[in-house]
Amino acid sequence: MDTIRIHPEDNVVVALHDIDKGQSIETGDKAVTVREKVGRGHKIAIRDIPKDSPVIKYGTRIGIAKEEIKTGCFVHTHNVKTALSEEAEYEYDPVINKLPEIKGRTFMGYRRENGKTGIRNEIWIIPTVGCVNSIAENLVRDNQDLVTGSVDGLHCFTHPYGCSQMGDDHATTRKLLAALVRHPNAGGVLVLSLGCENLTEEQFREELGEWNDERVKFLTCQKVEDEMLEGRRLLKELSAYAGKFRREDTDASELIVGMKCGGSDGLSGITANPTVGRFSDRLISIGGSTVLTEVPEMFGAESMLFNRCRDRETFDKAVAMVNGFKKYFTDHGQVVYENPSPGNKAGGITTLEDKSCGCVQKGGSAQVVDVLGYAEPVKCKGLTLLSGPGNDMVSTTDLTAAGVHMILFTTGRGTPFGAPVPTVKISTNTALYEKKSNWIDFNAGTIADGTESMDEAADRLLDLVIDIASGKLTRQENGEIRGIAIFKDGVTL
Fold first, then answer.
1. pLDDT reported for residue 224
2. Domain assignment present for 96
3. Sequence-ordered list of residues with C-beta below 8 angstroms from that of 423, at least 6 positions apart, any chain
4. What is the DSSP letter of 188?
5. Between 370 and which of 88, 133, 158, 380 could a Cys-Cys bridge form, CB atoms 3.0 to 4.6 Å apart?
6. Residue 289 lies in a domain
7. Of the candidates 154, 163, 160, which has an alpha carbon nearest to the alpha carbon of residue 231?
8. Strand ranges (DSSP E) for 344-418?
C-alpha cells in the first residue's frame, strides 16, 4: 500500500513511503498520477482543490488552499494556510461510543500506606529552589549504595525556580513541586531547601498538607553545618522506609496513564496516535484511567473531544480550558496558530489543524469524564483532559504532577527525553524504530507497513504497559534520562 485515505470525505491521501513523480497511486475509486516527488507522511491531492477551498483530512478541514491544487499535486505549506482564528463558538452535541470488551488485567505494583499504588519504588530529591540543584545532584551521585533491595532508584529533579517569582508563578511552582512529593512512584522523598528563598520550607509544608514523616524528610541547607552528611543521614532513613515495600498483584483499574506526542510527523495521526487511542479505550474498559493534555494542540480539533464530554458541566469546563489557553496566547500578543514546528512540517504536518486532528487521536473514543487545571490530581476513572501547554518537558511534568504512573509518548522524529515517571516512546514509523532503538520502546510503524492491524498493535501496547507497570524498564529509564520543567508566565525578579 502506497498511501492511506483516512476518511471517505478526504480530498488528500497520505504517503506511507516516499513516492516518485509520475508514479500511479490507487485511492479507492480511481488511480492518480503523482505530479511531483512526495515524502513519507506528506499529502497528495486526489481531486482538484480550488483556491480558497478546504483541504480535508480526517474527514475535517485542516486548512484552506492558497492556490488551485491540481489532482496529484503535493499538498503542504506552500499551497495551504490555516483556517484557525482566536474566535470560535462551540455547541454541545453529545456522542457516546461503545468501548471494546477486554478481559481484566493485573500488574505488580507497590501499595502505599495511603491506599494509592505506585509502579516504581524510588527515592526522589525535590529541590524547592534552583540554588540547591548541584547539592541535590551530588547527593544522588554519592548515595547510590542506598539503592538496594526493593528500592528502584535515587533521583533528583532540578529546576531554576522557587525564588525571584511572584504571584501565580510562585504559586504554580509550589503547587507543582508539592504534587511531585505526593507521587506514589516515590517510596521516599527528600525536600531540599536553601533557607532564604521565596518558597520557604514553611510555605511548602502548608502546600503539602498532611504527609508521613517517615516517607517525607526536609533538609534546609543553611540550617546545618554539612548538608552532604545530613542529606546522607536522611536518605538512609528514607531508603530503610521505602525498602519495606514489595510488589504485589494489583488490578489494572488502578493504573493512570498519561498520553503525549512530540516530534510528530505525517504518520502520527495514522499509526501511533490512534494506537494509543485504542489502548486508552482498552484500559478504560477495564476500569483504568488515561490523561490527555497539550491544549494548544487541540486547537482546530477540540470539537472531537468536546462532544464526548459526559455532561454539560464537563463540556463547559473543556470549552473554558481551550478558551483560557487562547486568551493566554492573545494576552501575550501571539496568534493561536503559530504551530507546527519545523520538524513537524518536515515530517508532513502542514497546519495546526492538521497537527491537532492527529494529536487528539490519542484520546480514543471514550467519554471525557473530567477537566483539570495545571498540576491538579486525577479524580475520576476514565479519560481526563488536563490543562497544559504542548511543550514536551512542561506537559509531561504536568502529567506527572497529576498523578500518572507512566506516559505514552508518540513520536515520528524521535526524542531521548524522559519525565520523572517511565516515559514509553512509540514510533510512528519502522525506520525510526530501527534507527533509534536506544530511544524507542514500541513500533507502531507496523500498521503503515501492513504487518499488523491497529487492534493488534493496541493489544500489544496494553501488554507492554502491564509489563512496565510491573517493573520492566523503559529505554529512557535505562538511559537515566529524567527531568522536569515548570510552567512560567510572569516576571522574574
1. 98
2. no
3. 396, 406, 407, 409, 417, 474, 476
4. E
5. 380
6. yes
7. 154
8. 368-372, 382-386, 406-411
Instruction: Supply the CATH number for residue 190's domain.
Output: 3.40.50
Same domain, 257 and 234: no
Sign, CA dihedral 71-5-352-61, equals positive
Global pTM?
0.93
3-state secondary structure of 414: coil
Alpha-carbon distances of 41 from 13, 270, 301, 392, 445, rounded to whole Å: 9, 9, 19, 21, 12
Q: Give yes or no for a contact between 276 and 461, defined as CB atoms under 8 angstroms apart.
A: yes
Q: Are residues 304 and 352 located together in one domain of the fold?
A: yes
SS3 sequence of 277-344: HHHHHHHHHCCCEEEECCHHHCCCCHHHHHCCECCHHHHHHHHHHHHHHHHHHHHCCCCCCCCCCHHH
Residues 233 and 273 in one domain: no
Residue 372 sits at the vertex; the CA angle it makes with 367 and 373, to the nearest 5 degrees, is 155
Grid coordinates in use for 73? 499535486
Phi, psi (deg, nearest 5) at residue 132: -105, 15
CB 273 within 8 A of CB 358: yes
Instruction: Determine the pLDDT at residue 19.
Output: 95
Within a domain: residue 116? no
Give the chain's residues under pLDDT 50: none
200 and 166 both lie in a single domain: yes
> For 150-288, where are the alpha helices, taking DSSP H only?
167-181, 201-208, 227-242, 272-285
pLDDT at position 89, please?
80
> Alpha carbon 190 to chain centroid distance?
26
pLDDT score of 215: 98
CA-based nearest residue to 421, from 143, 183, 261, 116: 183
Within 8 A by CB and 6+ apart from 141, the residues are none
pLDDT for 339 equals 66
* Per-residue pLDDT at 300: 85
Retrieve residue 42's grid coordinates: 506528506
* Closest of 400, 377, 410, 378 to residue 264, by C-alpha: 410
Smallest CA-to-CA distance from 459 within 440, 446, 472, 477 is with: 446
Cell of 491: 516576571
Task: Report whether 76 contacts 344 (CB < 8 A).
Answer: no
Residue numbers of the domain that contains 192: 122-244
CB atoms under 10 Å from CB of 370, counted, come to 22
| Residue 5 CB neighbour total at 10 angstroms | 17
Q: Are residues 474 and 368 in the same domain?
A: yes
Residue 440 included in any domain:
yes
- Say how far apart CA 11 and CA 8 lie, in whole Å: 9
Query: ∠ CA 421-426-427 to the nearest 5 degrees?
Result: 150
Total structural domains within the chain: 3
